[in-house]
Amino acid sequence: MEKEKQAEVKLHGMWASDFSKRVELALKLKGIPYEYFEENLPNKSDDLLKYNPVHGKVPVLVHKGKPIVESLVILEYIDENWKTAPRLFPTDPYERARIRFWTKYIDDQLFKNLITAMRKQGEEQDKGMKEFAKNLDVLEEGIKEFYSCAKPAFDGESPIFLSITLIGILGPYKTFEKVAGVKLIHPEKNPFLTNLLHALSELPEVKECFPPAEKFATLMQHYKELSLQQSST
């Protein structure tokens, strides 16, 4: 019976994917049993291509044989389908809409800037860094009011959906800085985000879910070298 229950939820992911990790974190916080399938993205499984034929990307959540794709969509599905605590979204529709706005801002703006910083050099990297700094300032001012508690936690007092999205993209920022050779977040300029990211990174649920910094840095360095090789040919 337990095996049947676990088989109801399957997650196709990749150990270093920020987007996969946010789904893993949500499942663990909700206490939802699931079966995990690690994907080798250069050699994608038939199941991944079957469940996500449009993009062929991770993560893919399969619930009772039905696939759900795109991490933010999956997080909403999890919260709507499993209404147990902790709830990822606030109950008020207006507050949910505001949270959606900032999570989309993180994915659409800051993630794009991070990719530029990681995979470009010279003027292109400088331009990406300036955009990142500007967008980071906007984010800092925009999300402060959501964190009224002294210390963020995944207990319903903090905006969990926003925290999961934020830690997935910006949590490893020190690793990104090391690999890219640039300073992404300045504590004196963005003290709120610096403290928030540190507090979220220290939560046991995050430590359990996310990969070791050294292992992640090695892979990011590999991706950077591949990108630079491709751009020089």
TrEMBL record:
The catalysed reaction is: RX + glutathione = an S-substituted glutathione + a halide anion + H(+)
Record's Pfam families?
A: GST_N (PF02798)
Give me any GO biological process, just one.
glutathione metabolic process
User: Which sequence ranges are marked TM in the entry?
Assistant: none
Where it sits in the cell: the answer is: Cytoplasm, Cytosol
Q: So what EC number does this one have?
A: 2.5.1.18
Q: Chief location of this protein?
A: cytoplasm
Q: What job does the chain carry out?
A: Is involved in the conjugation of reduced glutathione to a wide number of exogenous and endogenous hydrophobic electrophiles.
Which key words are in the record? Cytoplasm, Transferase
Q: What class of enzyme is it?
A: transferase
* GO MF annotation, one: glutathione transferase activity
Per the record's keyword annotation, is Lyase included, yes or no? no
Question: What's the protein here called?
Answer: Glutathione S-transferase
The GST C-terminal domain, residue ranges: 92-226
Q: Where is the GST N-terminal domain?
A: 7-86
Give the family, as the similarity comment puts it.
Belongs to the GST superfamily.
Q: Which GO terms describe its cellular component?
A: cytosol
